[in-house]
Amino acid sequence: MAFANRVGHLQPEGAYAVLALAQDLERQGRDVIHLELGEPDFRASDAIVEAGVEAIRAGKTRYNPPRGIAELREAVAEDAGRRRGMDISPGQVIISPGAKPNLFFPTLALVERGDRVIYPDPGFPTYEAMIGVAGGVPVPVPLAEENDFSFDLDAFDRLIDDDTKLIILNSPGNPTGGVIPRADLAHIAQKAIEHDCWVISDEIYARIAYDGLDVPSIAALDGMRERTVIVDGFSKTYAMTGWRLGYGIMPEALADRMNLLLTHSIGCTAHFTQYAGLAAVLGDQGWVDEMVAEYKQRRDTLVAGLNALPGVTCRLPQGAFYVFPNITGTGQSSDELANMLLEEMGVAVLPGTAFGKYGEGYLRLAYCNSLENIERVLERIEPLFEGLAG
Ligand SMILES: Cc1ncc(COP(=O)(O)O)c(C=O)c1O
Predict the structure, then answer these.
(1) How far is the CA of 243 from the centre of ligand 1 (A)?
(2) Interatomic CA distance for residues 137 and 135, integer angstroms
């Protein structure tokens, strides 16, 4: 059967492929510890769950405005603006089922066939997928390990040109946990203005940052507000992945186009989940800080343990819930090592290549699992690395 070119290039997400292999092993009676999925192992707070249930009981189960209910757009505008030090109006906010539609639809709205789109490699696989569907030319920019996985700015400067329509940023980043420092953002912003590009700034991990680190948004820099789409949501910050709730913040004219795209595609975001989201934004944030403190403990344990393995070096990531160790010293490729870890040691991780060609030489471990299981992982995998070191 022949399909349109715009879907021919699509690939599954690596995490789901590894999860399926891990589950096969589990069906055969093997014990597997899961560090492959980027999904919080916490549950949304009771207050959020109650607000969602109460909304269903109150009949908030109807069609609602494609761009989202006014109360939630107002709350998001205030909260997201305060956290980024900028004024955001509710007219700039587009609510969506998860953050993904706020990546995909602005790309469709902005990119013409043949336009170049710069994106991070290693990076979230949806970026390349959506550029392809929009008919854009994917232009991967390597992330520099020696720069804590910020953009390789020399490569960026070589690759950006007047045919570049869009730059995608992700800070803190999946799969590296890297944060793009303010000085690098200022450099990227200046180039974006010079070449008249849009920026999609995927800030879904903005609240998961460690050691009091400042996570700046490029949108707050001079001249960027009118050319930036901020993407954020509830999946990671509030552990609400399956509720499907996210948002985009963009210039009002683009928001109006987005409203039409949403009208004719998804129709609207589920009604009651938006009330749960409202409770999340307006409610106590202490439990989010507690989750982040727990992630930090896991990160510290995992990074220390990985650095003690022969052939492995691991930076201390500043955000998100991923570590991205360099495994070139083992002599194995990312794919080979990820397979060995799963099949021989019962530990599911992703090869760096699941995030692009510049991911070769790395693994991604998501620490969305208990500290106890992370300690078990480190014990379990040590003999493999000792063996490889000979
Ligand atoms: C970098 C990044 N952006 C966006 C998303 C999608 O978020 P959502 O589940 O809210 O659509 C993810 C999810 O893994 C992610 O890692």
Answers:
(1) 13
(2) 7
Nearest CA among 165, 176, 167 for reference residue 124: 176
Q: With beta carbons less than 8 A apart as the criterion, state whether 209 and 177 touch.
A: no
pLDDT of residue 15: 87
> Residue of the nearest CA to atom 13 in ligand 1?
38
pLDDT digits over 34-47, tens only?
A: 999 999 999 999 99
Q: 102, 104, 124: which to mutate for ligand 1, most atoms within 8 A of CB?
A: 124
Report how far ligand 1's centroid is from the alpha carbon of 343 (Å).
28
Question: Which atom of ligand 1 is closest in space to residue 124's alpha carbon?
Answer: 1
Residue among 318, 249, 245, 321 at smallest CA distance from 281: 245
Q: Are 380 and 372 in contact (CB under 8 A)?
A: no
Task: Give CA separation, 284 vs 142, 272, 388, in Å.
Answer: 39, 20, 48
- 310 CA distance to ligand 1 middle (Å): 33
Q: Helix count (H) and strand count (E) of the chain?
A: 13, 13
Q: Could you tell me the distance, in angstroms and rounded to a whole number, from the CA of residue 312 to the centre of ligand 1?
A: 28
Can you tell me which residue has the tokens 């949108």?
219
- What per-residue confidence (pLDDT) applies to 390? 81
Least Cα distance to 176 among 63, 322, 45, 289 occurs for 322
Give the mutation target among 208, 236, 321 for probing the ligand 1 site: most ligand atoms within 8 A of CB. Answer: 236
**What tokens were used for 166?**
């869009």
Q: What is the spatial distance between Cα 234 and Cα 80, in angstroms, rounded to a whole number? A: 12
Residue 212: the pLDDT is: 85
Q: Is 112 helix (H, G, I), strand (E, B) or coil?
A: coil
Choose which residue among 39, 95, 100, 180 to substitute to test ligand 1 binding: the one with the highest number of ligand atoms within 8 A of its C-beta.
100
* Spatial separation of the C-alpha atoms in residues 123 and 142, rounded to whole Å: 9
Residue 172 DSSP one-character state:
S
Ligand 1 centre from 309 Cα, in Å?
30
- Global confidence as pTM: 0.97
**Which tens digit of pLDDT belongs to each residue from 238-286?**
999 999 999 999 999 999 999 999 999 999 999 999 999 999 999 999 9
